[in-house]
Amino acid sequence: MNSASRFDYKTYLLLPMVFVLAPLGNVLLSKGMKGIGARMPWMPGNLWRVFIQTFTSAYIWLGITSLLAFFFVYMLVLTRADYSYVQPSSALSYAVVSFLGYFWLGEIVTPLRWVGIGIICVGVFIIVSTPHRTTSRAHCEIPEEA
Predict the structure, then answer these.
(1) Which end of the chain is more exposed for a tag (fewer CB within 10 A), N or C?
(2) Residue 7 · residue 41 · CB < 8 Å
């Protein structure tokens, strides 16, 4: 297996993590905050209790952990592929968010929204079929100062 094949393999393994970890983290944060906000009014006297409940919520910490993992994987993917490839590819997270919102949070996703998500996914599949790196690795390196 040549280095170009390994490069593609790693990139294509990491990329799905980008569009799953960020939506998962955001949905976990949403679930955690909805559970906290629904239990008490957000009045000045209650802010300390809201703060304590926020930072002792398992959903909040799982969300934060998922988002930290997303940022780490995102940085790794950016070292392996062009930004103009990675960012549009990460738009598949819109589909993941909608599925998680519908099945886990019980949100209503209208048919028109599903059509829009489908159009976005078709665009992502077009982008994914193009080369993920258009510049050589040597060209991307920062030159050393003398």
Answers:
(1) C
(2) no
Asked if residues 73 and 21 have their Cβ atoms less than 8 Å apart, the reply is: yes
Angstrom distances, CA of residue 10 to CA of 23, 105, 139: 21, 32, 20
- Per-residue pLDDT tens over the stretch 55-93: 899 999 999 999 999 999 999 999 888 888 888 888 889
User: Tokens 């008490």, residue?
Assistant: 40
Q: For residue 74, which of 41, 25, 115, 109 has the smallest C-alpha distance?
A: 25
**25: burial class by Cβ within 10 Å (0-12, 13-18, 19+)?**
buried
Measured CA to CA, the distance from residue 118 to residue 121 in angstroms comes to 5
- The rounded mean pLDDT for the chain is 83
